[in-house]
Amino acid sequence: MNARSDRSLILFNRKIVIFNMLLLLLLAININIAFTQSDDLLLKKGINLYLEAKDIFIVTNSKNDEALNILEESTGFFRTVEDNETKNYWLAKTAYLMGIIEKDRNNHEKAEEHFVSGKELILKSLQCGDFSDGYRLLADVEGQLITYRDILYMAKYGPPIKNMITKAIKLDPHNVMAYLSLAMYYRDAPFIAGGDLKKSKSVLKEMIALTSHDKMDLFSLYIWIDTAWTNSDNNREKVSAYISLLDLFSNKSDIISMAERIERKYINSK
Question: Residue 173 has what pLDDT?
């Protein structure tokens, strides 16, 4: 009886141990799920704030301070994200947008600081693995940085921009933003580096045919027209030629409205 009782006790103890291990395993799984859900929630909050700030800036430049404050708030959420690729990608997008806003109100020193930060962050994100919009964003940030640097910097970092964009398109042939960036590259690059307005228009046609995306979003419109002014040294004739390429898109009223808004900005800044 004693031997039998001992065996029963041993089996009972084993069952208790196995039961406790299963409980710990389930607890660990639930904790991981909770952390993942929390991570996703914080990322979503950050993205919503980023989009809110972007909309505020696009609707009116009279609330740039408000947009920047919201972007500062969004970075707090992005920094809590554990995945480095995602975290640094969204921090880079935020830094880029902050640079655009500071540039819009002629705070060029701060704008350059944000673009430098954006470049560093998106490079960190790409270290985790190649992805299409990472290279597109890197090209856009570099394109903005070049305007603040000397001819040597432009000669070194200008030509690789095209390679970044073509890599982005290769990774995702439906990346609309990448096509727009490539069209702007051909629009602004010197002839020796492949610049050609016909190529620019051809890229836009290819994008519309491939993606059926025949309306340019307001932020892209802003970037297209604003860089048309800055990269042409405020040459009205060139600006008109660059804007005329947008006749391919169907939202004509948006194009006219954005062109008038940005023209007023550069006229008033003289």
Answer: 95
